Backbone:
């Protein structure tokens, strides 16, 4: 069945460091891909999405490119801030719309 | 408010009791999803409602779990004869359609003693 694998955390970075969180997927067909974020004490929010191969999703300085050839959707940010500390979830959506999530990666950014 | 609303926010109950969790989707959203998030893990899909179509129940872990939705409004997730393994955060999401972004509620944290 469809699945998502993302790098284990926690990831600890200093402010202004470069961030990469790896995400790979297994799916039949052509799923849409998402990154969701859960800030401390808050609900899950959509961060960005891409619906077809080579699409780049971006939001709040974060980017991810849908790579069909490597079945990946890695999340990147050039300069992280303390306020980016959160749990990040990679997910895919099949033709029924239900989301299949990775296990989540905790990011901690230190000043 | 304009977001997805879930109640209660926290529920503590004894093993063997039944619990009912409620989700109020965003008005106009025809699709509604239930997910479960166990401690330190990703979200697991439970059930999906789309308009008046038969729900997709493929993620329900056992026959102790059931859910209902009246039209395009409120949904309730019921867990009968709760077990300690049912302890988790139960999240509800709604969207304008199956191919539209899902908006999540804050969840119900269920603890089984």
Residues:
């Amino acid at each position: 069945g469809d699945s998502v694998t993302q790098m284990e955390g926690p990831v600890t970075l200093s402010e202004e460091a470069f961030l990469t969180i790896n995400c790979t997927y297994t799916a039949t067909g052509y799923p849409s891909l998402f990154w969701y974020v859960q800030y401390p004490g808050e609900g899950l929010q959509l961060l960005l999405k891409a619906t077809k191969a080579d699409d780049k999703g971006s939001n709040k300085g974060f980017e991810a490119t849908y790579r069909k050839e490597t079945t990946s959707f890695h999340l990147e940010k050039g300069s992280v801030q303390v306020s980016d500390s959160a749990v990040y979830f990679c997910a895919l959506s099949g033709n029924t719309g239900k989301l299949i999530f990775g296990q989540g990666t905790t990011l901690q950014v230190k000043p | 408010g304009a977001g997805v609303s879930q109640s209660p926010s926290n529920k503590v109950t004894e093993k063997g009791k039944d619990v009912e969790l409620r989700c109020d989707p965003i008005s106009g959203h025809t699709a509604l999803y239930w997910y479960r998030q166990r401690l330190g893990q990703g979200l697991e899909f439970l059930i999906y409602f789309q308009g008046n179509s038969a729900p997709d129940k493929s993620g329900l872990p056992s026959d102790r779990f059931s859910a209902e939705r009246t039209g395009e409004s409120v949904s309730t997730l019921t867990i009968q004869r709760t077990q300690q393994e049912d302890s988790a955060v139960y999240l509800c999401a709604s969207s304008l359609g199956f191919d539209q972004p899902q908006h999540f509620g804050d969840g119900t944290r269920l603890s089984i003693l």
Notes: Residues 39 and 86 of chain A are 5 Å apart (CA to CA). The radius of gyration of chain A is 13 Å. The mean pLDDT of chain A is 94. The first strand of chain A starts at residue 3 and ends at 6.
